[in-house]
Amino acid sequence: KKNKPNHTFLQPAQVHQIIEKSREHSYADGYNYMTGLLKVAVHTGLRKGELLALKWDKVDLEEQTISVHRVMQADRTIVDRTKNESSRRTISVNNTVTGVFGQNKKEQAENRLLLPNSVFQDNNLVFCCKDGRPLNYNYIYVLFARFAKSVGVDATFHDLRHTHASLLHQSGDVDLKDIQDRLGHSNYSTTADIYAKADTTSREVAEKMEDIL
Description:
The structure is a single chain. The chain contains nine helices and five strands; from the N terminus they run αααβββββαααααα. It is mostly helical. The strands form two sheets. It has a three-stranded antiparallel β-sheet with strand order 1-2-5, with no helix packed on it. Strands 3-4 form a two-stranded antiparallel sheet. The longest helix has 20 residues, at about 95-115. It is globular.
């Protein structure tokens, strides 16, 4: 029988510390793509491949929703399918997330003007390199682990997804079925096995995601 993977549930203070480290990091092309990516990851619970494949045609800033229809694979190929049928979903997002999207739109428009047409690649991606190319799927993991380790946390990028669900569950305001739908789990039991056993004694997480973070 396979052992179930261990999940690290970060506390709000740890999330803030990791995000702050991402601001301080010197990126190769001088363009910080990680801070916004980390914010959206912990506020939505999207998988890394779902985030990196997210395109502007699936973002509705007015309605504050995003639709998950694509995933990025390890070779940076974007495919028009999801992990399972339940993973194909539309979720609401908060002001923190739409704020990141608005900033990304502005920066991408500026980069398009600064870079020659022969250099800038218009892939319509919400999260991308300065020149529009898809982000490095594996390097995102490396960077996150580095930021986490620097603040004394042993965690992976995927743990932001677990943290999102755990904090919502601990708040006492969100039903596990709603968390299941938000995460795109095909079975309720998957959600319950992971999050019903999470520490529910911490009252510092008494509000929902935007209030928590």
